[in-house]
Amino acid sequence: MPVTPTRFPVPGLAYGGDYNPEQWPEEVWAEDVALMREAGVTMVSVGIFSWALLEPAPGVHDFGWLDRLLDLLHQHGVAVDLGTPTVVPPAWFYQRHPEALPVTRDGQRLAFGGRGAICHSSPAYREAATGIAARLAERYGRHPALALWHVHNEYGAPVSACYCEVSAADFRRWLRERYRTLDALNEAWGTAFWGQRYGEWEQIQPPRRTPTTGNPGQALDYARFSSDAMLGNFTAERDVLHRLSPGVPVTTNFMTALSQCQSVDYWAWGREVDLVSNDHYLVAEAERTHVNLAMSADLSRSVAGGAPWLLLEHSTGAVNWQPRNLAKRPGELGRNSLAHVARGSEGAMFFQWRASRFGAEKFHSSMLPHAGTDSRIWREVVQLGADLGRLAEVNGSRVRADAAVLWDWQSWWAQDLEWRPTEDHRADERADAFYEALYDRHLTVDFARPGAPLDAYPLVVVPALYLAEAETGEHLRRYVEQGGVLVVSYFSGIVDGTDTVHPGPHPGALRDVLGLTVEEFLPLRAGQRVALTAATGGAAGVSGDVWSEAVVPRGAETVWHYAEGPAAGGPAITRHRLGAGSAWYVSTRLAPADLDQVLARACRDAGIRDRDQLPRDVEVVHREGERDSYLFAVNHTAAEARVPLERPGTELLTGEPAAGQLRVPAGGVRVVRLPR
Questions:
Q1: For a surface tag, which of 25, 262, 471, 561 has the fewest beta carbons within 10 Å of its beta carbon?
Q2: DSSP 3-state percent helix, strand, coil across the chain (nearest 5)
């Protein structure tokens, strides 16, 4: 089990990046640490890709260079996040164990030469990974520079699932533990359909390529198994580190942004790390990249249960792996970093410290760029270090949220299986859309897993919960009866945890709380839009696309109905008064402005006041400490913004008093300490 850190890995806020000195002559190291001090670096991540150097041959170890490096960093006051280099086993390992290379669903075995080419069911891999982790812990577990252990790197990228025979056997073991009997498995998977019933455990294989779509229950369980297989390797290394290096927290870097990693159930993983850490990279071509950044930060904080978490990687400028790698504009480096801190990160770390001259990521930006210290990026890096130093006191404070979004990775996996009503509906797209709508209403969001306590939130949004157990529906019904306000999007509550449709009409688990049934899904043609009209008869100017439904109210009132399309005349958006609260249902995909109309009314139900005095793309987030609270104002616009203050305080980045209205420069950030 994870340990609770008695302290955050470094005082104040962590600042630094991945440091890969093995790419450079050793005489460069002294220059590096001198520049780190100039930039205000407090911690670097070391050794993440160094297995081949640390163990150049089986059982032969070379720690001399790492000894010298950790001693040098410690002498200069730089703490170390020490990696177990298990994301890239050495070439000799694969020469000995070619079976540890993963196999694709189509039966192709991937080759050594990239990173993350691992069958996570391989016993040889686990033995070797825990072995190198143990050697590192024995040698450095009490080194004064060591602040944090960093296991592996970005589990699930680029390979999460393997379909080899070793994985098949491991899958069968996992299924035996889950279902105990073949009868239970056959019932869960619905194998009576298409004559797929299994009579022996050995007949079960991974969901490899089949002539047509395969069994969805099998595919869903394989996604669960694959996440668990990776998690098993993480916990095996973590337990070695806990035993040999007690008291030092252990993490692995998540990728919570829905655009970056789908294959990991971060709700399960968040319980197993000592400190949640996250990597976030902007989708550079997106119009409002800061919204996705905020969403990823809120997800990371939520996976951590609201506890301190750490941004372990992001970029100073462009990345090198997107189709078009747009560079960040002046000031964006610091603004992005402080936006993460606003939403709970205890610092800002980057990939990487010094730009590589060779290898696959040589065009990836860095803290020390190819342009050197006489460059805009370097000057902004130094400025950010100074700013984080001024904000050290926010360490340990907690973010105050206004609303919750119910989200579940396993439901996302289930919805993305084959043969759904339309390929145009995506769970992640709806989650993005609802989050952006809440962001534009200047609401800070916590994410919650199904079944989590919701009493603290006056408003809960369910953008895409296709898979929902009956207990989830009961939980949401009690939330609404006790005064909560719920907003649910279409195609939610449809199936249980085995991807089996709930008995009775749709929306299954959510029928009672929503006060309606759905007779039929009525997806729309590509590009088709259908107009909606307010139930009072006035034109609402609202329309939907992608999806519509034949909705039958069973206690809910119709707020908007379909004016055209296959559901013409029927309810489109409903409101169900239940106990002291209300539940809204949106049965079509609304454009942003139209979705805002619904959320505006739901917010009024919830007693959440409009914050229309705040400009668009100026985010205001509160962190609450034991004595003081901190207002972060992040201005993503090209004009100065003014943010009202409830009481006077001190702006920490400038040291100036702040009262009345806080002026936030174009593209700038201001942080005000407000005595409680």
A1: 25
A2: 35, 20, 45
